[in-house]
Design a protein that fits this description.
four-stranded mixed β-sheet, five-stranded parallel β-sheet, 20 strands, TIM Barrel, 46% helix, alpha/beta
């Protein structure tokens, strides 16, 4: 058994209670802006007071809605097999969503993406052991704008079997995306029982749920598809500069989302997530690799866990423009802190440049980081005492422990074995292998991964059905 699971916390229980109560008070007194007509009618039917589009949600209604939220979500792969469960401190990684650029491995240039880039990205994700879900990672420009939402879902599921984190930028997209998901299941009930996709929905800070994002929550809830709140308070610009103030605003925005989802359909699944940042006062940017951004994320997640909800955060990404040392330490720090916090869905592997760019090279490097994080979270194992004395007695006979029965029995369990991305060679061996940097090794490995056959090839009948939906929808 593990002696203890390594953890980190930045809020005590008293402050969590204070944040929760203040967030409820904000919704009751200051209110939240609701732009969506269906949500407005639903709020009116529930007798929620308002001034124009500003609705004042009472605390007792928030509490009532929290009571019906599922405490865990199991996601299934394209073939309907159980894949990951979002609960407690289970940790899973996926690439972040909706980058608008790709870092070209061949030219080293950041450029606009095309669908071929997304296909390559999805195929690499399928091969990576520690990236357990895929995402609508890149917005590409070689399909009509009105098709971009559902087309990414179509290509993702055509090229990778893993469950997907996705979302919509147009209200009209949801029905097509739902049709694509249903093609992978036997019925609507089967899709509800075996969810394949998470739909991100981002409130607009401060305290506003737009027409589009609210509709996404409503549509997903009706089909029992998990919604993932991606609240984005920007400390010092659209949220208080104090970290605890931003955490409180995030809590209020997410509680409003809870009300929308549960009033739509009691028991609909949701994930308490976010992508906050601090505003960099020197550059005017939104650094995702800033330690304060990571601290806000940790506080946000602790509030979600305080409410016993599945959690999400954008961590493990970098503001650097290339996979360099900055990308390494920002991604490593973020992923490690996210793991120690027990975040259920960690989005960010592969991402650079303030969430705007995806990089296959960084994705492959981040897979190693994710593997190391998972090894840490296994903790130190107690195999029974004495822990060392009996083993050390045997050292006197051979003056080595490499061949000792305990070494042979436990080394595969105790040690994390990285891929060729991590350099542990002697200096001479490193020179003989081309003196390659981490980035160069990642580039070489990407080519090998893309040459591999699919781990779980898509069924021909399903592939044809997805093609048919895409062709019909493009017309």
């Amino acid at each position: 058994m593990s002696i203890i699971r390594p953890k980190i916390k930045i809020l005590d229980d008293d402050h969590k209670e204070m944040i929760l109560e203040e967030a409820k008070a904000i919704l009751e007194v200051q209110g939240v802006f609701i732009e969506n007509q269906e949500a407005i009618e639903m709020f009116d039917q529930n007798g929620i007071n308002h001034e124009g589009l500003r609705y004042f949600i009472p605390p007792d209604l928030v509490d009532k809605c929290l009571e019906t939220v599922p405490h865990e979500i199991t996601l299934f792969d394209r073939d309907g097999n159980e894949h990951i469960t979002l609960k407690e401190d289970n940790v899973h990684f996926d690439p972040g969503s909706a980058a608008i650029f790709i870092l070209d491995e061949d030219t080293g240039e950041i450029r606009g993406a095309v669908s071929k880039d997304f296909i390559r990205f999805s195929r690499v994700v399928e091969q990576l052991e520690y990236i357990e879900a895929q995402s609508s990672a890149i917005i590409y420009q070689d399909v009509p704008k009105e098709a971009q939402d559902w087309h990414r879902l179509y290509l993702a599921l055509s090229n990778c079997y893993k469950p997907i984190v996705t979302g919509t930028f147009r209200k009209e997209s949801f029905s097509i995306m739902r049709e694509i998901l249903l093609a992978c299941r036997l019925s609507e009930d089967d899709l509800a029982r075996k969810p394949l996709a998470i739909f991100d929905a981002c409130p607009s800070p401060p305290l506003k749920w737009s027409d589009l994002t609210t509709q996404s929550l409503i549509d997903a809830a009706k089909s029992m598809i998990p919604s993932e709140f991606v609240s984005m308070p920007l400390a010092g610009a659209s949220a208080p500069i104090t970290l605890i103030g931003s955490i409180t605003q995030h809590c209020a925005e997410c509680l409003a989302g809870v009300a929308i989802v549960q009033l739509t359909k009691r028991g609909a699944p949701l994930i308490w997530g976010g992508s906050p940042a601090v505003f960099d006062m020197k550059t005017g940017t939104t650094p995702m690799g800033a330690i304060e951004t990571m601290m806000i994320n940790l506080g946000d997640v602790e509030m979600g866990k305080f409410l016993n909800l599945p959690t999400h955060a954008y961590m493990g990404l970098s503001d650097s423009k290339i996979p360099d040392s900055q990308a390494g330490f920002e991604a490593g720090m973020g992923a490690l802190l996210a793991g120690l916090a027990g975040i259920n869905v960690i989005s960010g592997p592969g991402m650079l440049d303030f969430e705007s760019t995806q990089s296959i090279e960084k994705l492959i490097i981040d897979n190693e980081i994710a593997g190391m994080v998972k090894r840490l979270l296994q903790g130190i194992e107690d195999y029974g005492s004495p822990f060392a004395s009996e083993i050390l007695k045997d050292y006197e006979e051979k003056e080595e422990l490499l061949s000792h029965p305990s070494t042979l029995k436990y080394f595969r369990k105790e040690l994390f074995f990285p891929s060729i991305i991590i350099d542990r060679m002697t200096r001479d061996s490193w020179k003989n292998n081309g003196s390659k940097s981490t980035r160069k090794r990642a580039k070489d490995l990407s080519k090998k991964l893309l040459e591999k056959s699919s781990i779980k090839p898509i069924d021909n009948q399903l592939a044809n059905e997805l093609d048919h939906i895409a062709e019909k929808s493009l017309r």
